[in-house]
TrEMBL record:
EC number annotated for this UniProt entry: 2.4.1.12
UniProt cross-references to SUPFAM superfamilies, sorted A to Z: Nucleotide-diphospho-sugar transferases, PilZ domain-like
Recorded name of the encoding gene: bcsA
Protein's recorded name: Cellulose synthase catalytic subunit [UDP-forming]
Biological classification of the source: Bacteria, Pseudomonadati, Pseudomonadota, Betaproteobacteria, Burkholderiales
Membrane protein topology class: Multi-pass membrane protein
Length: 739
């Protein structure tokens, strides 16, 4: 960057800071708190907004207006404070509503049936996207950022809590870690009990629970899946509160003390949710190698959306890492069983009864992400189906008990999962013109750009400012494109007939023995990419041989190229990377000591850990043969755990140790010294590289190019590799849609 550019940026930042400070002082004036002033201000603002949205401009007037607004938005994007964010939202909403008003009043004069068919589909998709944009702004404009409330000094006054760990088909090694850390929760021992709720009715689980001294609850059926499992346990326990953890979600020692203070302060609080944090990469992060560099698909929800919901008293229960007060839960009939998203539906029922729900954006547990793309898609299909079911059987816009803000938050959550059809329309819209000559906009290309680009650019920089810590620009299109085809049918079927479908369990703790390309999963993306490549070729041909609508062709070509990037990035996700570790490693620098057979010790620091081993940095000159027995001590403050281990591998200064024959007490101690440390998760929560739209676009383009290379590499492999070796390209795992 040149010095002049640096000075300009500094001046713009200082100007933005001054504007923000003046605005904050004006809003603090008590004058604005008078009811009459509020209503008059609202009426005037509404009339001005309507005027700005509807006033007709010709091309040059629209360009001048859009340019001034965008420059103001850029200045605001450098301005600290919530007021600047609200001002950016106003500008974005103005640009989007102005575009949609122009779109509906000036571009729908279709002349042929093919124009009408493609044009109507596109405008419906745009209306859906606008509604989601507006609801998203409403939901996340002012995150509550709730802080923990300290517990009373006298532990004898603390309430009793039951810890539920439901399981069905997960391996015992996965469940063990959650049980081990739950046993070490910082809470009076006589005031909490741990229960494994085993819907698999497995003898080894019963024996394990007896060995470690936790409760084991089962039933003679699997009716209503996880919801029924928890409801059955409620009948056999009596704690004042219930804390629920999926069997792969490992709680930290501080979980209860961080969460429970709000229940004692607010007697109407029925449920408190904490984030779902994952110490293993999901299929996007694993297959694209973006773990801890690009925020994952769920980080926006737990980093921002839930915090925004909390402002409106509309926090969703997410099925795990949460505490529920037993009285209100019994009042609504236990965990909801009418839909397959029993968790969100339960929170809706609690809110309808007038109870509060809350969110603490502090990771207090960590779990395993889905290993394969097929498993990930199956999980999202269940969520989408459940939200469509709620939309039909308990629509938040209807019925008693909810305030306006709560209704809109729940509505946005449900409408979000209807993105399948709109996303597919956006991925194919330019082909209507390039392949069929359909004019989906009855307007000139320059006017389309003058109205559409402000809408797109304002939404991009505003969302980047609001979501930058938890979602990078353009990645939402990749996530939705991967899932769009697969959630389209289940959502529509569930909306038409909510009783269809079943609960599908998301497998955790599995292995992927070798890398392979999932042709079955990738098929829709490949078809979309080939269609867009065909449209690109035809469009270039039109330009090469002369075309009276050259600008229109260029606009559609740019759109097509963008769609090719997104679909090729989606193809890259379908190239499954092998996963050969039963126990994923967690990167962490923990104080440790090595003790050798001759009694000497060496102070070291861990690089990572798992339930089966630990990686340690040692001096390069230290000689340790493979297989040599050592003892490794791991510390937390003054607490020390000593564990027998053997040297598994050595690479320069990196030493890999494998724990040997740990007894149950040592396994419990190891889990509580490693996985139960909240600082492990707090260090990386919300600390991804900050978003910059251009850098994010460049990253998605790189992934898209990578997708092209992977596709042709696998095609070559299948075509020219001998049949015996070609079998290494594994078939897709069966996609469980819950139908």
């Amino acid at each position: 960057m040149q010095p002049d550019d640096t000075n300009t940026n500094i001046q713009a930042s200082r100007l933005g800071t001054r504007i923000g400070a003046i605005g904050e002082r004006l809003l603090a004036e008590p004058f604005w708190q008078h009811p009459a002033v509020k209503w008059v201000s609202l009426a005037v603002a509404a009339m001005l907004f309507a005027l700005v949205v509807t006033v007709p401009f010709d091309l040059y007037q629209q360009l001048i207006f859009a340019t001034v607004c965008f420059i103001l938005a850029l200045i605001l994007s450098r301005t600290p404070g919530r007021l600047a964010v609200l001002a950016m939202i106003v500008l974005s909403v103005t640009a989007s509503c102005r575009y949609m008003y122009w779109r509906l009043t000036s571009t729908l004069g279709f002349e042929t049936w093919i124009d009408t068919f493609f044009g109507t589909g596109l405008v419906i998709a745009e209306l859906y996207a606008l509604v989601i944009l507006l609801l998203g702004y409403f939901q996340t404009a002012w995150p509550l950022q709730r802080k923990p409330v300290p517990m009373p000094a006298d532990p004898s006054t603390w309430p009793t809590i039951d810890i539920f760990i439901p399981t069905y088909n997960e391996p015992l090694d996965v469940v063990k870690q959650t049980v081990f850390t739950a046993l070490g929760l910082d809470w009076p021992l006589d005031k909490f009990k741990v229960y494994v709720l085993d819907d698999g009715r497995r003898a080894e689980f019963r024996e394990f629970c007896q060995e470690v001294g936790v409760g084991y609850i089962t039933r003679d059926n699997n009716r209503h899946a996880k919801a029924g499992n928890i409801n059955a346990a409620l009948k056999n326990t009596d704690g004042e509160y219930v804390a629920i953890f999926d069997c792969d979600h490992i709680p930290t020692r501080s979980f209860l003390q961080i969460c429970m203070g709000w229940f004692l302060r607010d007697p109407k609080l029925a449920m408190l949710q904490t984030p779902h944090f994952f110490f293993s990469p999901d299929p996007f992060e694993k297959n694209l190698d973006t773990f801890r560099t690009v925020p994952n698909e769920g980080e926006l929800f737990y980093g921002l959306v839930q915090d925004g919901n909390d402002l409106w008293n509309a926090t969703f229960f997410c099925g795990s890492c949460a505490v529920i007060r037993r009285g209100p839960l019994d009042e609504v009939g236990g965990i909801a069983v009418e839909t397959v998203t029993e968790d969100a539906h339960t929170a809706l029922k609690l809110n309808r009864r007038g109870y509060n729900t809350a969110y603490l954006a502090i990771p207090q547990a960590a779990g395993l992400a889905t290993e394969s793309l097929s498993g990930h898609i199956g999980q999202r299909i269940r969520w989408a189906r459940g939200m469509a079911q709620i939309c039909r059987v308990d629509n938040p816009l209807l019925g008693p008990g909810l305030k306006f803000g709560q209704r809109l938050c729940y509505l946005n959550a449900m409408l979000h999962f209807f993105y399948g059809a709109p996303r597919l329309i956006f991925l194919t819209a330019p082909l209507a013109y390039l392949l069929f000559g359909a004019h989906v906009f009855q307007s000139t290309a320059l006017l389309i750009a003058a109205f559409a680009m402000p809408h797109i650019l304002h939404a991009s920089i505003t969302n980047s400012r609001m979501q930058g810590r938890y979602r990078h620009s353009f990645w939402n299109e990749v996530y939705e494109s991967v899932l769009a085809w697969y959630i389209l049918r289940p959502v529509l079927v569930a909306f038409i007939n909510p009783r269809l479908g079943k609960f599908n369990v998301t497998s955790k703790g599995g292995l992927i023995g070798q890398s392979y390309f999932d042709w079955t999963i990738a098929r829709p993306y490949i078809v979309l990419m080939l269609l867009n490549l065909g449209g690109l070729a035809l469009g270039i041909g039109r330009l090469a041989f002369g075309n009276a609508e050259a600008i229109t062709v260029l606009i559609n070509l740019f759109w097509t190229v963008y769609n090719i990037v997104i679909t090729s990035a989606s193809i890259a996700v379908a190239s499954e990377t092998k996963q050969i570790r039963h126990a994923p490693r967690v990167t962490a620098a923990l104080r440790a000591t090595l003790r050798f057979a001759d009694g000497k010790t060496l102070a070291v620091e861990t690089q990572d850990f798992s339930q089966t081993g630990v990686g340690i940095k040692v001096p390069a000159e230290l000689e340790l043969p493979i297989g040599e027995a050592v003892q490794v001590s791991i510390f937390r403050n003054e607490e020390e755990g000593v564990f027998p281990a053997t040297v598994a591998f050595r690479h320069g200064e990196r030493l890999g140790l494998r724990f040997e024959a740990l007894n149950t007490q040592q396994q419990i101690e190891l889990a509580q010294l490693t996985f139960a440390r909240a600082d492990n998760w707090a260090k990386v929560w919300g600390h991804s590289t900050p978003d910059t739209p251009l850098a994010a676009l460049r990253g998605v383009i790189v992934i898209g190019v990578h997708g092209f290379r992977l596709l042709f590499s696998h095609l070559y492999h299948m075509t020219f590799t001998p049949r015996s070796k070609a079998r290494r390209v594994a078939p897709s795992a069966k996609l469980d849609t819950g139908d």
